[in-house]
Amino acid sequence: MEEKIFLITAGSGPLECCRAVYKVRELLIAQARKLDLQVEILDEIPAEKTGALQSCTLRFKGFVPEVFMNEWQGTVQWIAASPYRPAHKRKNWFVGVEILENGAPVSWNESEVTFETFRASGPGGQNVNKVESAVRVTHQHTGIQIRVADTRSQLENKSIALKRLAQKLEALQNEQASQLRHDTRNKHLSLERGNPVKVIRGPL
Predict the structure, then answer these.
(1) Domains of the chain
(2) Which residues of 20-49 are buried (b: 16+ CB within 10 A; e: fewer)?
(3) Which residue among 17, 75, 84, 188 sits deepest, i.e. has the most Cβ atoms within 10 Å of its Cβ?
């Protein structure tokens, strides 16, 4: 199943931009559901008033049409009077919508692992034993391989290899999560005013 992660951010904009983030989130979720996409809210950073967000991160699962992504990715301009400062002359509020790079999800299921056995060799190429006790496991989804020849027991080596594979996969997931947080911070700071990909007119 395909998945895309959308970040909606007010950048360093005022409270009205945070309100626009909240409203854009509602529109995105409603449109995604019409496209039969699964919607998951990954993260929200609230603003100082209810119904306003500094940023929001959404995950959409399913077939995400290119036209849907192109419609929203970039700067969104919301034209409306301020709901917080009625006398304020400004009526243009900007938010950013970015699609974050999401590493391929790391699945951990033993059915996705292939096993190979071979003879373990000692110093100088001497055989440690005459049976294929050494084990190599390969995680098909990521290509990660673990080779273990710690003991003379194939069963024990297999168990050790699976534990080490699990550690490798956990490290990979942590790395992907760290990269996603880094991308989110960068996108949040780099909101471009002007040249909007979408203009919305309506009350905030």
Answers:
(1) 3-104+185-201 (3.30.70.1660), 110-176 (3.30.160.20)
(2) bbbbbbeebbeebeeeebeeeeeebeebee
(3) 17
pLDDT score at 122: 54
pTM as predicted = 0.63
**Residue 106 tokens, joined:** 């790391």
CB-based burial of residue 108 (10 Å sphere; 0-12 exposed, 13-18 middle, 19+ buried)?
middle
Residues 6+ apart with CB under 8 A from 109: none
- What type of residue is 26? E
- Average pLDDT value for the chain: 83
Contacts of 112-118 with CB under 8 Å at 24 or more apart are: 112/139, 112/140, 112/141, 113/137, 113/138, 113/139, 113/140, 113/162, 113/165, 114/138, 114/140, 115/158, 117/154
- Report, as ranges of residue numbers, the positions in the chain whose pLDDT lies below 70: 1, 101-108, 121-131, 171, 174-194
Q: How far apart are CA 201 and CA 204, in angstroms?
A: 9
- pLDDT recorded at residue 125: 46
- Between CA 111 and CA 90 the distance in angstroms is 58
Closest CA to 147 of 169, 132, 164, 166: 164
